[in-house]
Amino acid sequence: MEYRGYIHIMSRKSGYDNKIIVNNRIVYKYSADMINKYKLLSNKIKFFWSIRSKDRYKVITDIVETISNGNIVIDSKNTYREVNNNEFTIIRGDISHFFDSVDKSKLYRIIFSNGTFSNSEEKLLKEIFFDRTITGIPQGNPISSILSEIYLKNFDQYMTLNYKYLLYERFVDDFVLILPYSVKNDELIIIKNQIKSFLNGINLKISEKKFYMVTDNDLKLNSGSFNFLGYNISIKNIEDKYYVCLKISTSKIKKYKDRIYKAFYEYNSTEKETEDFVRLKIKIENILVGVITVDKYGKKERLGIPFGYSLINDKDNIKDIYNLFMHLCYKSNLKKDEFKLLIKIAKNFKRMLDENYIYIINYLKMPIKDLKNICHDMNVKNISNKTKTEIIQRLFKKVYRK
To answer: Is there a domain that residue 6 lies in?
Structure first.
């Protein structure tokens, strides 16, 4: 279950306001003004270094296409891609405690030897590199993802030049390497040691628990699968042919169930006023249906299982989420009208499971009157002169008590 706690209040010299712990990771909180400044600087560095944003959807699609051919089969609910007949090995790896482990002195030299910055931009960077209260790259800062891409640029080059690969993909600190042959255990040890040696040279370590391989035979014999970016990827036998099967990983299912349980627990610990129920309802919607909103930077954001896992073609384990939600609805002694509103969410979620139907709540297209009514129920104050984006941001801040 997610744990959040404040562990540090800034000194005046720091660029951040405080640190919090989220899921055992330190996240740095910045003021809106500092976020905007770092966002502008991030865009400049991104352009200068020609860094392309990673698309999680495309990464998973590329993996599926690499291990499959063009043939597909459609059953009553889902579409599957047939696995090709060629040998392949999937090596899955993870960089341990990546953000905290980045050598800031190395990164500083890389950044300043390949870019020109104004005095104000240089000051922003130095507030990260020279602040001893910041360990590695600060998660929560808009520039962190760009800095991580720069730091791992040589690692990507090493992986693509050193191995004869079908596909190499890295998403922040997770990576997958697909080789066009069956790797033996002794060769895997060699590959692992080579990768470990390179990472050690830049002060990083591989996660021993998350480094493993699966071959095409492992997958076809139903004895193997691998997790990547929240998906579990395996092989399904349909009429003596093998097809790629995608479902939500067990750990992610657990996190969704924990979030639902926590939302109901918090609601049942209140006086069950209107604000308390609306908070519960919005939190559940943000998990079970497709929600279009804006993030703290004003960028459009898609929430919910239907958007986050649009590629799944095996939904059996999602039924556990539905069953938990229904159990908590009946157990929570809701008012009749409140119960009906939550059951409507459940029905739309069930339709997604049965019919690939997606119910969408789009805050960006929501009439301003409806949005203000929700804010009224949530006791969101001082929104009369705010833009729609600002109103949405204030609403979500109140929902999650940020």
So the answer is: no
For the chain, what is the HEC assignment? CCCEEEEEECCCCCCCCEEEEECCEEEEECCHHHHHHHHHHHHHHHHHCCCCCCCHHHHHHHHHHHCEEEEEEECCCCEEEEECCCCCEEEEEEEECHHHHCCHHHHHHHHHHCCCCCHHHHHHHHHHHCCCCCCCCCECCCCHHHHHHHHCHHHHHHHHHHCCCCEEEEECCEEEEEECCCCCHHHHHHHHHHHHHHHHCCCCEECCCCCEEEEHHHHHCCCCCEEECCEEEEEEEECCEEEEEEEECHHHHHHHHHHHHHHHHHHHCCCCCHHHHHHHHHHHHHHHCEEEEECCCCCEEEECHHHHCCCCCCCHHHHHHHHHHHHHHHHCCCCHHHHHHHHHHHHHHHHHHHHCCCCEEECCCCCHHHHHHHHHHCCCCCCCCCCHHHHHHHHHHHHCCC
Q: Sorting pLDDT into bands at 50, 70 and 90, what band is 14?
A: low
Asked whether residue 4 is domain-assigned, the answer is: no
Residues 243 and 257 in one domain: no
Same domain, 202 and 288: no
pLDDT in tens, 337-369: 999 999 999 999 999 988 888 999 999 999 999
The last residue of a domain, from among 212, 227, 248: 248
158: CATH: 3.30.70.270
Residues of the domain holding 44: 31-248
Bridging pattern class, strands 360-362 and 174-179: unpaired
Using CA atoms, how far apart are residues 26 and 17, in angstroms rounded to an integer?
Answer: 13
Residue 23: pLDDT above 70?
yes
d(CA 329, CA 345): 11
